[in-house]
From TrEMBL:
Keywords per UniProt: Aminotransferase, Transferase
UniProt-recorded Gene Ontology molecular function terms: transaminase activity
Organism superkingdom: Bacteria
Region described as Disordered: spans on this chain: 1-32
Domain Aminotransferase class I/classII large span(s) in chain numbering: 61-381
Protein name per Swiss-Prot or TrEMBL: Putative 8-amino-7-oxononanoate synthase
Amino acid sequence: MRHPAPPPPAATAPKPNPTDSSEPAPPRPFQLGLPALDAFPRKLWARLAGRRARGLSLAGLNYPDPAGYPPLREAIARHLALFRGIHCSADQIFITSGFQAALGLAARTLLRPGDPVWMEDPGYFRASGALRLAGARLAPAPVDQDGLRVDEAIRREPDARMAYCTPSHHSPLGVTLSLPRRLELLDWAARRQAWIVEDDYDGEFRYDGPPLPALSSLDRSGRALYIGSFSKTLFPGLRLGYLVAPPDVAARFAEACNLLSPAPSTLDQATTADFLDQGHFARHIKRMRALYAQRRAALAAALQSECGARLRLDGQAVGLQLTAWLPDGEDDRAAAARLRARGLAGQPLSAFSLECGHPPALLLGFANVPAEQAPALARRLREALDLPLPK
């Protein structure tokens, strides 16, 4: 067995480098899943958080409600009714430490090991990985220009116990689940007594009109669960999300939360509740929609100018990413590796696929790319695509 070497004597120990920092590295351009961190109102947030910390009572030091801070649950219920068309009580809302915790809570509460689950193909790889970890048997459900193909999913796996979907803005193709498909999916769930998990990860950001009502707003049979997160609307470091359970299973989720206690810090929850209740959240979303529309247009124009012969951009005016289609036959994983070699981010579409093949494409986040930087970054991307593959 190898043993670690003893530490050097104090006299010869290396001195700390004053430039060392525990701060994580800054995000790379085109990184997916990031909002405009540079535009977040940090001073306002710090003021709200400081006020909450200074006013912390003895009761606030006790164990928190395992289902989440009640005023935040109430604030989310009001927000969903106003902006997503979902009418629910605060008792149906369960606070978690983000989307993955909410999905894990749903899987633990409603699924048994080996249960088949429809998974969009292509689909969000963290969702498919979490469902596998929970013991689910994934049944790939193809996606086309109208979203999840319900008829094909039924043909492939009619006995699925759950369907995972991103109807407002499909991850990663960016399409919206059409109304006929939504009704078809809800009808299937009602007939089969199956569950639908709606992941509304960035449905707030639509640039050619108001956000669409959530699929869950159409549910009349109590089969749809809605998962939301503040990672895109506020900032991912907050680690705060929520799940809305149908009324008939809310007690089961409350029991699960009592055992698992998935909610994050009460101080963070209270600060978020203040941010919502004082109107800051609605104003922030309005500002971000305008900013993202500008940044999206700037990056699309720059990419068209630099890479128009090499890339074809989608036309989906929603979400925080662009899909850049590569020429047929090109390896999108190799293209993504070339981007990384030049300090750029971007994900290959093939990384999201289970079994259904799709043309090669790169997924590029634009929310954290200021408009004035778009031309230079598009040039770097073109140069990166022309590089030989790093060994």
